[in-house]
Design brief:
Blueprint: E1 10-11, E2 17-19, H1 28-43, E3 44-47, H2 49-55, E4 60-66, E5 70-77, E6 80-84, E7 90-92, H3 95-105, E8 111-120, H4 130-138, H5 143-147, E9 149-159, E10 162-163, H6 168-179, E11 185-187, E12 190-194, H7 195-210, E13 214-219, E14 223-227, E15 231-242, E16 251-259, E17 265-271, H8 277-288, E18 293-294, E19 307-308, E20 314-319, E21 321-323, E22 333-340, E23 345-353, E24 356-358, E25 361-365, H9 379-382, H10 394-397, E26 403-414, E27 417-427, E28 440-447, E29 455-462, H11 465-479, E30 485-486
Parallel strand pairs: 3-14, 9-11, 18-23
Antiparallel strand pairs: 1-2, 2-7, 4-12, 4-13, 5-6, 5-8, 6-7, 8-9, 9-10, 13-14, 15-16, 15-19, 15-20, 16-17, 17-22, 20-25, 21-24, 22-23, 26-27, 26-30, 27-28, 28-29
Helix pairs in contact: 2-7
Length: about 475
């Protein structure tokens, strides 16, 4: 039985097809790919050069050159070959697929799944970049583009009915046996060495000497280690929190944002490491002088709300990596803010895809830089990781206005005080533009000045107006009872 319906895929160039997971006859394939991506993330420890020297234990390692590509699984099913990533994108019919089919046909295997990196072999000889994969694999412009797609294999996940785990050395030997003579589909470049010294030797050769993205060291006993150089980027401080208890009077962490091309501020994350205690005390005092109001609120890991500050202070930080998608292939959406200079106020715009920064560390305050799109270039991020909607501007960010559908207000006098209950139902008109909004909202405001908690709210959301109409009727019966006068 075939797993892919080619008619559900889009023909690109020649025999090359792309499609989505709905082209699969067995949706567990995608589930298994996502599971493998999660497992890989959970078992891999990311380190920089200094930490690798201290934390990688002795032992035999398969040390591989890290390819800057897209994690993908190659599937072979009774002569059918395709690749699928955790986001559910299917690709088939490229020359590297044909090479994989030819190699696997000779093994007599019925079903197999391999983990690897889909990448583009560049004509200029420079190292592959994930940006190239996104551009070429999604919409190639020529047969040469399709032919440039390659696949570096680093693991066997399934072989017939076996779920492969452990015994990495044995599996890599099998990968080399099958694909060692192939061109576009091949084992990742790998050497065997002992402990951190061997890993850092390859780091010096591949990363320092040949500008590779990093190295990956795998051991059946010690685990998996990813060693990469740290990236240094400049970001705008937009908020901060103070430490608790014995850390009171000291900075806890800082909320940071990148500046988009339209001068909006995209919240990327927080930095809480790399500060000395003296810096925590002095920076807290400095940031407190710039506190402003904000319509947008967020809390840190201790559930302490960030105090927002005017845009102006630029922090240089270092980070080990940036990740633009979850293990399921979903985008990592962050809030875009707009600074209202006239009102001295932060206004929320909407969430858009950005990225997560891994292991951020404070380096210094950049007194020589200002909080603008020239000094805090958004391309600092897009040079490292592919970010969807990176070029969207503020006019495209604005969401449609909501539409009021129904409104009802009732009052009641009690002990000289006026109580108010208000029902409102509206259509957001935003559900297709942002996953943060439902289609319809029903909201109850219940105000009673004589109560311990004077103001109470209830809310219901739905994709169905009919469903909320029924809630409206139920709440009218419950809250607009005898003694209440409808306005």
């Amino acid at each position: 039985m075939t797993l892919i319906n080619p008619e559900a895929c889009k023909k690109q160039i020649g025999n090359y097809l792309t499609g989505k997971a709905d082209a699969l006859s067995d949706n567990t394939v995608l589930q298994r790919v996502r599971m493998r991506r999660r497992q890989l993330g959970q078992m891999t420890m990311a380190l920089d050069r200094d930490h690798a020297k201290k934390r990688i234990p002795s032992g035999d390692y398969h040390i591989s050159r890290k390819i800057d590509g897209e994690f993908t699984c190659l599937v072979y099913n009774e002569g059918e070959v395709f690749t699928i990533n955790p986001g559910g994108t299917i690709r088939m019919g490229a020359p590297f697929h044909d090479e994989a089919k030819a190699a696997l046909d000779e093994t007599g295997v019925r079903f197999a799944m391999f983990g690897g990196e889909l990448y583009v072999r560049r004509e200029d000889g420079n190292r592959p970049r994930v940006h190239d994969v996104v551009r070429v694999a999604r919409a190639p412009k020529s047969e040469a583009d399709v032919a440039s797609l390659c696949f570096g294999i680093f693991n066997i996940y399934e072989w017939n009915d076996e779920q492969r785990s452990g015994q990495y050395a044995e599996r890599f030997d099998r990968i080399t046996e099958i694909f060692g003579e192939a061109d576009r589909v091949h084992p990742v470049e790998t050497v065997i060495g002992d402990g951190s010294k061997a890993v850092l030797t390859q780091f010096k050769k591949w990363v320092d000497g040949e500008s590779a993205e990093g190295v990956v060291a795998r051991s059946d006993t010690a685990g998996v280690f990813k060693v990469k150089p740290r990236h240094t980027i400049d970001l705008v401080a937009v908020g901060f929190t103070e430490g608790l208890d014995d850390r009171s009077g000291m900075l806890h962490d800082v909320m940071l944002a990148a500046v988009r091309s339209d001068d909006t501020f995209h919240v990327i994350g927080r930095v809480g490491g790399g500060f000395s205690d003296d810096e925590r005390a002095s920076l807290l005092k400095m940031l407190e002088e710039h506190v402003v109001e904000s319509e947008y609120a967020e809390v840190n890991s201790d559930r302490v709300a960030y105090r927002m500050i005017e845009p102006g202070i630029v922090f240089e930080i270092s980070c080990l990596d940036m990740i633009a998608r979850t293990s399921r292939g979903n985008t990592i959406d962050r809030m875009v803010l707009e600074w209202n200079e006239d009102e001295r106020l932060w206004e929320g715009v909407r969430r858009l895809p950005l990225c997560s920064i891994i292991s951020p560390q404070f380096v210094r305050v950049r007194d020589d830089k200002k909080a603008n799109k020239e000094d805090v270039r958004f391309s600092q991020l897009t040079d490292i990781v592919e970010i969807p909607s990176a070029n969207v501007v503020s006019e495209e960010l604005k969401l449609p206005a909501s539409e009021l559908l129904k409104r009802a207000v009732a009052t009641k006098e009690l002990r000289g005080a006026t109580m108010v209950r208000k029902l409102m139902m509206w259509k957001t008109n935003k559900e297709e533009k942002s996953k943060d909004y439902p289609a319809f909202v029903l909201h109850l405001t219940d105000y009673s000045p004589n109560r311990k908690d004077p103001l109470k709210h209830e809310i219901r959301v739905s994709s169905s107006q009919e469903q909320l109409e029924q809630y409206w009727k139920d709440w009218e019966k419950k809250y607009f009872v005898s003694g209440w006068s409808t306005l």
